[in-house]
Amino acid sequence: MPGAVLIGAGPGIGRSVARRFAREGLPVALVSRTGGALGLDGVRAYQADSADETALRAALDAVVGQLGTPDVVVYNAAIIRPDSPGDATVRAHLDAWAVNVVGALIAAAHVAPAMARRGTGTFIITGGMPEPKAEYVSLSLGKSGVRTLVALLDQEYGPSGVHVATVTVAGPVAPGTDFDPDDIAEHYWALHTQPRARWDHEILHSGLSAADQ
User: Fold this and answer.
1) Domain 4-205 adopts which CATH fold?
2) Model's pTM, two decimal places?
3) 212 pLDDT above the threshold of 50
C-alpha cells in the first residue's frame, strides 16, 4: 500500500508529520542522514543525505520497491544557520543550496513522474523565511528558491494530477509555542487531502490566529 515519505525526518516537524499521516493509516517511510525511526512504531527508516544524489535516489528506489509509488512526499531537509552577507563562503552557500533546494528538486524529479503517470500524488516542501533576513542569508535564498521550485514543479506535474505545495513556517519550531510542530503538521495533511479544484500551493504558518492575521 503506497503511503507517505518524509525526507529530512527530524525530531520536530518531521516526526509530527510522520505521526499525522500514520494516524490516517498510511504507511510511513523516513529518509534521514541517521536512518533513525524517531522512536515511532511501524515506520520504515532509510539512510541518505539529501545533498547526496546517488544516496537519495537509492533510498527512494528502496521505498518504492517496498511500498510502491508514494501517495505523498514531504521534503523537510534544510540547513538552518545564521550568516550575514559577508560571512558565508562560496562552499558554504553551495552546501546550503544543495540541501535547501537541489535535494527537493532531485526528489521530485525521481518520484513525481510516476505520480503523474498514475494521475495522483502530493509533493510538499517545508518552506520558511516569508521575508528575507540579512542575518540568515543562505536560508533566505534557499527558501526563496523553494517558492520558485514549487511553481516550476506545478507547471511540470500539476496538469497530470500532482499537487505541489509548500508549508511556509515563519518562526522557530518548538512544542508548546505558536509554532508547535503538531499544529504545523496539520497543514501537510490539509494540503494532501485538498480537492483538486481548491488546491493551495502555499500555506503560511505565521503563529497568529485567524482573528489576529
Assistant:
1) Rossmann fold (3.40.50)
2) 0.95
3) no
